[in-house]
Specification:
This protein has 138 residues and is mainly alpha-helical. The protein has six helices and no strands.
């Protein structure tokens, strides 16, 4: 599972924290996890983003051990062959894509009242609209 953060929510969290910031304030000097508060499977997030961009969904996957081994090969070959491009897989990437990434936003709610205003679905709708209105380039 992963949890995303719509940019307006991240900006609002900064503003909310700023509004509560003062010497001795609960949020002074602390770091917070900010997100939409909607953890969901990585495949769902990725396919929703691809759909918003008009791209086909990811339909296949490979087991973690296979991805990790491919990453190990790439981690070895890219420096050895002095390839300038980014490797298509690394051990780090395999581990990150197979690990849950979501954290409690309760401290942000408690300390400065953070509540995400834009849901994942609303953020996708805005993304689709932005992509649809973007100029095309030859």
């Amino acid at each position: 599972f992963v949890d995303t953060t719509y940019i307006d929510n991240a900006a609002q969290a900064h503003f909310d924290a700023f509004q509560h910031l003062a010497p001795g304030a609960a949020c002074a000097g602390k770091a917070y996890f900010i997100s939409n508060g909607q953890p969901m499977p990585m495949r769902k997030v990725l396919n929703a983003l691809l759909a918003a961009a008009g791209a086909p969904p990811v339909e296949k996957s490979i087991p973690f051990k296979t991805a990790w081994r491919i990453g190990a090969v790439c981690d070895t070959l890219w420096p050895l062959l002095r390839l300038r491009s980014e490797p298509p897989m690394t051990r780090f990437l395999a581990e990150q894509l197979s690990t849950t990434h979501w954290y409690s936003m309760e401290p942000a709610r408690r300390d400065f009242g953070y509540v995400p205003a834009v849901s994942f679905d609303e953020g996708l709708a805005r993304l689709r609209a932005a992509i649809g209105s973007a100029p095309t380039h030859p």
